[in-house]
Amino acid sequence: MDFCNKVVVITGASSGIGASTAKQFAREWAKVVLVGRNESALKEVATECENAKGIKPLIVKAELSNDDEVKNIVSKTIEAFGGIDVLVNNAGFGCKASIHDGIEPFDRIMATNIRAVYLLTSLFTPYLVKSKGNIVNVSSVAAFRPIKDVDFLPYCISKAALDQFTRCLAVELSKDGVRVNSVNPGATRTPFVQVAGFNKEQAEELYKIRDKVMPLGKVAESEDIADMIVYLASSRARSITGALHVIDNGEILV
Ligand SMILES: NC(=O)c1ccc[n+]([C@@H]2O[C@H](COP(=O)([O-])OP(=O)(O)OC[C@H]3O[C@@H](n4cnc5c(N)ncnc54)[C@H](OP(=O)(O)O)[C@@H]3O)[C@@H](O)[C@H]2O)c1
């Protein structure tokens, strides 16, 4: 896989799956654009990316629920690199919330997990059409079924919406030669669980339980998800569009 001279924008590149994905693209000679909020974490990832092949990444600090900051990602990318070849819509979060918690968690989750994805993608679309590039969305197995034992209603809805976005957009952009795909991870070892409101001990306990119930006896690592993202973005996946790729150690089978 060769991403030499390809511009790859990754949201949520400061942590977990996004950070692993950025490093993997950098190892494949890509010019990476790292988007996130935590500047010091972004700088650490940027250093690792630069150490791979000597190509300096662009860092764009952005709160994705803010439209102006989303617009700034596009202008900074075009200013620095003149275009885009791959957009990885990875940033997202979950939080414990049920229908009893009212509309606030729903609005908060949708603003980042789906609205920002829609806005950023729409702004990059003319450039992706020009480059005949492609998009990879990071969804979840939570798009297919409720999460057991935890109230995660708005998150599950946001990822189901993201999957339909992937499929509809794949049809819409197929005439322009732009592919759109998704990866749908199951439990993956990242700070996600703690960001969602579990403390360190609870997170470890959750992984221990998951390690036991998963058919393959383990949760995924962020590199496992990054592998699939990089593959889908590459020309090896030239016949794949509108497809959702489950990476879950068999989680949804049991
Ligand atoms: N880990 C899992 O078990 C799992 C399973 C299925 C799907 N996923 C999906 O995988 C994706 C990546 O999650 P992860 O596991 O890597 O979690 P993570 O380590 O918590 O990373 C989430 C990333 O998203 C960024 N982000 C979140 N909200 C943002 C906002 N409003 N504006 C800008 N950036 C924002 C964070 O930026 P800062 O840290 O800089 O604030 C961080 O870089 C998410 O879409 C998640 O839903 C994860």
From TrEMBL:
- Name the record gives this protein: Seminal fluid protein
Which terms are listed as keywords in the entry? Oxidoreductase
Q: Which InterPro entries match?
A: NAD(P)-bd_dom_sf (IPR036291), Sc_DH/Rdtase_CS (IPR020904), SDR_fam (IPR002347)
Q: What's a Pfam family this protein contains?
A: adh_short_C2
